[in-house]
Amino acid sequence: MSDWPELFETELLRLGLQPVRARQLTAETAQQSAEHGAPPADVFGPAHLYARHLVAELNSSASARRLAPGPVLLSLTGVGKRYRRRTVFAGVDLRVRGGEVAAIVGANGCGKSTLLRICAGLIRPSAGEVRRTRRVGFVPQDGGTAGWLTAEEHFTLFGAAAGMVPGRARSTGVHLAARLAWRPNTGQPAQHLSGGTRQKLNLVLGELHAPDLLLLDEPYQGFDQGTYLDFWQQVFAWRDAGRAVVVVTHLLHDLRNVDHVLDLGAL
Q1: CA pair distance 54, 42, nearest whole angstrom
Q2: Other residues' Cβ atoms within 10 Å of the Cβ of residue 263
Q3: Signed CA dihedral, 182, 188, 190, 193: sign only
């Protein structure tokens, strides 16, 4: 049997975690690797590196110190969208600063995804004004990847669009994937990935060029519970780094994690 769990727990203890918490985290990683049907080394990478990453994330989220909000990175004033005779939404106001997380909620069909695409500049509003920072990362709910390309080919392609050399784009993509407990399989095209893993790929591509504003459209579709928690830890890390994050969600318990809530259904 692999000694990965023992090495992982030993490193957690060395980094200062209490024994009970270290055992709990070791059990959780064992459960997650079992759900993936793969050894923990294949899911999380080297035990000592994953332990260091996990402790750093826990310390970041547990810290009571919060930076003062930064500059406004996204501003919507009186934004509306209309298709022929149908008004999707009107009079939307939203301001998100660096170091803040905003959630867009509302019933199906109220225009959440449409509004996020307007924020990204992919759709023009019918009314109102949108101001955003230049460096924007957009993660769609569906699509966003090419089925015949591998993960590393995606990293190279998206990196080139951001002016990154291929080697740096690939190494950055692999590093960001590890934060989501994912090690891309060389040679495996995206069409052979599970739905949850394709969403991990989308998240990595959205962050690849280190944007100041991240726009996420229900990015956790297909995630298991462990990866879902990893996702929110990553959101906290972005916020602590002074980035602005906007998340479209239908999970109301997510709202305890955010600084602003925009309910399109209430407009």
Answers
A1: 16
A2: 14
A3: negative
- ∠ CA(19), CA(23), CA(27), 5° rounding? 170
User: Which of 42, 49, 41 is CA-nearest to residue 12?
Assistant: 49
DSSP state of 255: G
Radius of gyration of the chain (CA): 19
**Which amino acid is it at 85?**
R
Residue with tokens 């280190």: 210
Helix (H, G, I), strand (E, B) or coil at 213: strand
Q: Is residue 179 within 8 Å of 230, Cβ to Cβ?
A: yes
Token readout for 30 is 């064992």
51-72 pLDDT per residue, tens: 877 776 666 544 434 556 789 9
Residue 201 CA to residue 182 CA, distance in Å, equals 9
Provide the token pair at 47. Answer: 């035990």
Q: Is 60 exposed, middle or buried (0-12, 13-18, 19+ CB in 10 A)?
A: middle
pLDDT in tens, 100-119: 999 998 888 889 999 999 99
* Range 222-226, long-range pairs (CB < 8 A, 24+ positions): 222/194, 222/195, 222/196, 222/197, 222/198, 223/196, 223/199, 224/32, 224/35, 224/196, 226/28, 226/31, 226/32, 226/35, 226/181
**pLDDT at site 61:** 47
> So what's the pLDDT on residue 64?
38
In terms of Cβ atoms closer than 10 Å to its own Cβ (0-12, 13-18, 19+), residue 2 is exposed
